[in-house]
Amino acid sequence: MQINKILKHAIVWKLANTMLVFLINLLLVRLLGAADSGVFFYEITVLSFWVLVISCSLESGITYFGSKDNKTLSPLIFIILPLLFAQALAIRALLKFFTFSTGNFFSIIFVISNLAIIYFSAFFYAKKWFISLNIITCIINLFTILVLFYFWINHPGIGKEGNYIAGIYYYSLAVQALVLIGVVWFTTKKIKLTSYSLLLVTRDVFSYSILAFLSNIVFFLVTRIDYFFVKKYCTNLELSNYIQVSKFGQLLILIPTIIASIIFPFSSVNSNQMPVSKLQELCRTIAFIFIPITLIVILTGSWVLPWIFGKEFNLMYTSLLLYMPGFFALSIITVLAAYLAGKRLIKINLAASLIALVFVVFGDVLLIPMYSIYAAAAISSIAYISAAIYLLLIYKNRFQCNTFDFFYLKKSEIITLLNQLKKYTFFQH
Questions:
Q1: 158-192 residue pLDDT tens
Q2: What is the spatial distance between Cα 299 and Cα 285, in angstroms, rounded to a whole number?
Q3: Are 224 and 116 contacting, i.e. CB atoms less than 8 angstroms apart?
Q4: N or C: which end of the chain has fewer CB within 10 A?
């Protein structure tokens, strides 16, 4: 399947899945309330950081080497499954020193389920089964929405009486993990294994993943450490507003994230299918999409956001406006970094993340106590823009490409994009 066709199909399915995730998020906010949902999503962020640390970014190694040679996928299964069991024991021991509002059991479910989802999604990416992965996720998320919607209509106060709502969310992740494991297990051709072959695959995967891990851990801090400063210096209500702004930003970088997930396995194998000129074309497309979205946010955000989330979320609009340049820069970073990772240039991604992290930490410490979540949003934008400029300079010097070509849309390209938007609708797919 050609790269353009893969992108179109993957984007459509991922958009559908993201809308379902957004509805899950919205139902959780409505059921738990503004302040309690802020605490809930803050704890989810903390646990997500644990997932990132414990995973050691092994999914990067799985995707990279699995894309190059599908024969490595069979031994990788026999490495990952025992590893998940060991990680579950480690999480159980770690939770003796921490307390979460939903309890240790659900915390273990969240971490292990997400680890399994990350690892076995990488098998799908290595096989280039992008659409199948999204279909499975869509079905499970749709069922989760139906269950949450039932409780919202029939038992609106249940979220404040116990962990029922959190349990629905956590168990949906467990189901998704089990389905992905089952599909990979029964569709991967088993080959005869030796201790030496396992050792070689393990060495290669871990050596690649360690560098990816360092880059990902710093990047996670860049995009999430502001939560810590907002929680420290602001109220729970301000924290909840800010987290929803961040989640809205995740929607804005959805298409770049989809593009990046496809760029990575293709750029690691074949430079002809994914040249820098193709990367520039994709970045120009992102810029084209971002312009009308930004205008819509400016014109309607002041009343649409409180209407969707509730009147207590009236702080989101200004924060989102300050964050919009950063979200665009983050979109470009996501695509550029995926290509570099496929070329084993992860150290460059790490350097870009460190530049952004310095801006975020120093800026948040100095300004959040005075200017609240507005400062956090503006500082994050500056940090992302700085990292994007660094990566663009790297591309200019290493690949001898014109930086202007990453953003300048030709008239013919605009006409083509508009025609494709008319042709490829959700219902036609």
A1: 555 546 777 888 899 999 999 999 999 988 877 76
A2: 22
A3: no
A4: N
What is the distance between the alpha carbons of residues 201 and 110, in angstroms, rounded to a whole number?
28
Confidence of residue 157 (pLDDT cuts 50, 70, 90): low
100 phi-psi bin (left φ>0, alpha ψ -120 to 50, beta other): beta
What letter represents residue 424's amino acid?
A: Y
Tokens for 171?
């168990």
> Structural domain boundaries of the chain?
3-423
Q: How many residues appear in the chain?
A: 429
Residue 347, Ramachandran bin (φ over 0: left; ψ between -120 and 50: alpha; else beta) = alpha
Q: Which two tokens stand for residue 79?
A: 């490495």
Q: How far is CA 71 from CA 68, 95, 297, in A?
A: 9, 37, 47
Backbone phi, then psi, for 423, in 5-degree steps? -80, -45
- Supply φ then ψ for residue 114, to 5 degrees: -65, -35
What is the H or E stretch that residue 197 is in?
helix 195-233
| Residue pair 126/261 in contact by the 8 Å Cβ criterion | no
- Two tokens at 343? 């070329």
Token pair belonging to 140 = 């499970």
Decide: 49 and 166 in contact? Cβ < 8 Å.
Answer: no
Name the strand (E) or helix (H) holding 48.
helix 34-55
